[in-house]
Write the structure tokens for this entry.
Amino acid sequence: MAKKKQAKKSSGFWLADWANNQGSPKMATFMVTGVFSVVFIIHFSMNAEGSFGWITAFLTAGLGYITYKLWSGVLKYHCPKCKKIYVGNIYSQSHLGSKQRAKQYRVRDFQTLKYKDQKTGLNKKQNYTIERDETGVEQTDVYHNKVKCVICNYKWEYNSTSRSRVR
Ligand SMILES: [Zn+2]
């Protein structure tokens, strides 16, 4: 039972596991970016004809998401030592502090207008939205994270921030 912990060499994210198993996650990312570019070009050249291709639209969106995730892994979320992506396991996190500031938020109100149609005499409904600016309070929390790579056990540290509206 004690040996179970060592067997786990997965990031817990299927895409990262796939890229990490390609040897170099960066090369895998370039490969996927290439495929994405081709599908993207096919999609837009097909739609120039006037018809909308659902298959290529679906592939473009799916591959777009995958490409985005891989690049953020390669550029930001990777182990500094073995370069594998999404392998940092936070084993300790401390709250360094928080700041609050006033911030303008754009909010949307959904409203329904009920009226009687003059021509048919029927009751009708119309939905509409109002956009307006509102002053709220944004809180920024800073955390210090201690991370350990699930693949090579390398340890590193970084700060992260999270922002949320509190009022
Ligand atoms: Zn590592």
Q: What stands out?
A: The first strand starts at residue 88 and ends at 116.
